[in-house]
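User: Hey, my collaborator sent me this sequence without any context and asked if I could get a structure. I don't really work with proteins. Can you help?
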Amino acid sequence: MTHAVPAATPVAGAALNPTLDASLDTPCPASTTGLAKALPRRISPAIALLAILVGATVLRIAFAAATGLGNDESYTVVTSRAVAMSYFDHPPMAWWLARLSAWLMGSEAPAVVRAPFLVFSALSTFLMYRLTTRLFDPWAGVLAALMMACAPVLGVTSASWVLPDGPLIAFLLAATLVLARVLFEPDAHPAGWLLAGLLGGLAMLSKYHGVFFFAGTVLFLLTSPRHRFWLGRAWPYAGALVALAVVSPVVIWNIQNDFISLSFQASRAAAARFQPVMPLVVIGGIALFLTPWIWVGLVAAAVRAVRAHLRSPRGPSRRAARSWLLVCIGCGPMLLFPLVAAWSPAKPFFHWAAPGYLMLFPLLGHLMAQRWPRHPATRRWAFGSAIFVATVMVAVMVLAQVPTLAAYGPGTPRDPLRELATWSDLASAFQQQGLTLERTPFVVSRIWHEGGKVGYALGDGWPIACIGDDCRGFRVTHVEEDHVGDDAIIVVPAPARPEDLAQIRSHFTRLEPLATIDLRHAGAAVGTVSILIGRRYSR
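Assistant: No problem. I've predicted the 3D structure and written it out in structure-token form, which is a compact way to encode the shape of the chain:
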């Protein structure tokens, strides 16, 4: 899979040529040749991509094996035990993948349930290379893949953990790759719209963010006169019907459950007091999640693409249209979520905007390929980013395993790694207390993420219910409905809040304290829980 490098001589100053700046989407033979000459002859784009794939995958596998499941991951694994067409928080793809992997391997070990997401991350790296190569050139594709792997929210967490973002990223890139061929390659068959619709539907089956692919495509067709004719053809609409068929399980499940998932997500954007600073907080948060220097590069590349579009009064030129397509698909999440944060009563989630920034990496790769030969800072920037993210991943793996680092490791109140601890002591505590399914056939927690931790620690033999104000997916598992009149084991953090105990007590004849358990991970304390027995559950 080697690519021949043009033999033309680089033009001095080509990387700073205003004409080239206005045509960001066209291959730049001068810069590509310069980049190729800056590297040893034996290094081709294919070899460089292989090195990135192998290095990133090895680090991600080690990271996945060395760290326990986080709150969201434990919750997803536990609620995925009840196979359904969709789930409370998100469409079902992440739940299906985790359950399928656990079923095939007979284990819910972190490395097992994370395995499908590691595969998707490698696929996403390759797809980023292919998309950027199709729009620009192979070396731009290599640099785009490298920088995506160096962005923590895309190259580490979404690439290693049991999260909807892993498959979402892969399907978004695949759908955009197919769409780019249909729009920009004369020999492409229009039936490619059907494949783009299928892949876009799979993106929506992964996370509701997939809708931005379709919204961005419509925006591009409306704003690109050379491609607007597609709005009068049947193919795009046929692709939309394919996408609707793919995502139909989510629609059916929401209808059956009073649109509880869509209502939950929409409630996060409910109008509240205007908070003008929150958009800046969200933008600053996503900049940290991407690393500030990568974020600056992405924004700079996007600004260049927008300027190229605005310089064409009749719409983007043939050369600028490719960059404009990426901006159209990516602008939805990038603009919407900071604006929503200004009125939303919910805590902002910075990673929600990440799928939008995903579409800017091809632009960044192209910009870096242009600047690589004559700007040493660009090379230091790229290699420094790779060294930084690798160092952070290794540091996290060490902190998660070495108890002597407990001052900054698991167990301290300010510790971000505490969430990755497994409550493995809970299972042994149940055995020591003689708790069995025959006597107490289900377990109750007070909130969704604690239910995930408890359920994962105990294994799939124990049904988990939730009694509290924020139970999320546990509300639709119907565990408690199957155990009316039964006794239950109640696990709550110690010391338990009186209002939590009062809420739980209202569903039982009485509560009987049983034991207090200290939970430890890697030799460090991660918390304390109280175990109680609830007598005769009532709905």
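In plain terms: Residues 376-399 form the longest helix (24 residues). You can pass these tokens on to your collaborator as they are.
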